[in-house]
Amino acid sequence: MTSKKSGAISALVAMLALVALLLAPAPSAHAEDVADEVAVTGTLAPDGRLSLTEKYTFGGAAPATITKRFGTRQSGVGDLEYVQKINDITATAGGQPVETEVDHEEGFTVVTIETGGASEPVELSYTVDGAVRKEQDSSILNYRVLQGLSFATTNFTATIEAPGIAQGISCHAGPPNSTKPCKLAAQGTHDAPNPHWEDGPRGAGEQVTAIAPFASNVVAVNEILEYRWTLGRAFGVGPAELGAALGALVLGGLIAWLLHRRTGVDVRHDGTSGEKIAEFSAVDGDRTEFRHFGTIRPGHVGTVSDERVDPIDVTATLVDLAVRGHLLITELPREREFSQTDWTLTRRQGSDDLRPFEEHLLSAVAPEGETGKVSEIAHHVQGQIGQIQDDLYDEVVERGWYERRPDQTRNQWQSVAFGALVLSVVITGVLVAMTTFGLLGLALIAVALGLVFVSQEMPRRTAKGSGLLQGLGRLSADLHTHPTDEMPKGREYHELSEVLPFAIVLGGADRWLDALAAADDDDDPDSTDLNWYHGPDNWHLRDLPDSLRNFITTVSGNLFTR
Questions:
Q1: Of 88, 60, 84, 91, whose CA–CA distance to 70 is shortest?
Q2: Alpha helices, DSSP H only, in 92-160?
């Protein structure tokens, strides 16, 4: 029984002890985390250099490690910052050197002192450049004599020997950026002939800023001012910055214009009517027929017109090959009501010669002995479309319409333009990061973007090419305005069909398709009435406009599909 009572009492005592431990308040700081006194003494030289020694006195052993964080940057007016440089750092404990490590962080110099738990006072000595600022006609010492210590202090004093009498002194104390006055700021008394400041207690990391104005002939200004980066400063709008940006825009625009004039503007034609490609000639009184001159085909027309080999140029070439008897386009019946329309492309033996780009196109869409389908055209043409484009570009140079291939000229200038754009972006980054001329960088980017745009216009036609373009302009006007119902009787299908490939690339195709539909004067199916386009059994010529528009859209969309 006694044993059980004894065990219960022991358990109760243990529980009470645990509760007391849990409820006991944690100590606010160890004694070694608070110094009895931090005393700063030093000298302010006539050249503004400040030499200081900080003495840390503890009631017992010093902390094994002491850390001091010097703030080396303070905000000034606008984007300016005052910079202070801490040099000649040494530390002793009881008069003996101790190990000191100095690290530099953004805006701070961090000193770590290994005291080894010394029982004697620890001293830290250093010099400061940049502590004396200019204000009107005075030199003002402005320095945080207490800052960044890893321990608290009960008392703080600072005394600085100066080369002359200060014109009134003051101080701020408390957390960083505090404007609360410290306990004492005095000078010129019997007990304090030099500027003297007192404060305390102060917590770890708190500050005391000493301020002492002097005549400029007593202490020289040695402030170090640096600009702090801000977006507003990077894109300055002063006269120099605005002038540089405007000058870059004007000069860059002038250079781009001159380059375009030299490389992108067509050589002027000699002033005659230009090269005639085709025309509507009067026959049989009030009838006209479409007469095509030379060997200029729709593929050439499209390439010379816009300096590119576009899908519409290749599609118009397919229709032209069919009209000339080299290809038969057959519209297939739809498998279901809402199925996609498809066509077969059947190779034929035409009566005229083919250009290399036409040969390659025919071989791609309808190889010898085979029938191709429009639904499969992307698969068949994909490997040949590059060759077809090369053939056309080479031919417009061979025929003297361009001095160089338009695609090569365009690619060369695009490379130059994008190189200029990348360079201007890099220059802008440097200007924004390091100067106030960010607007100049934006102006350079704008000029480079303008050059990217101008590079698309750099291919230029020769005088002969300009003459051809004039002729194409007149033909385009005819295709848009010439009456469509004046073709010779009995030859409407043939004449109207010859017009179509050119109207596809130059415009006005719809009105000529409608004319073909109107040429049908009966209600019988017309599935084979055209010798170049066949439709399903119940197909009529009135269906041709929709059928061919569908064909053009489908082929053009599939030609460059990947």
A1: 84
A2: none
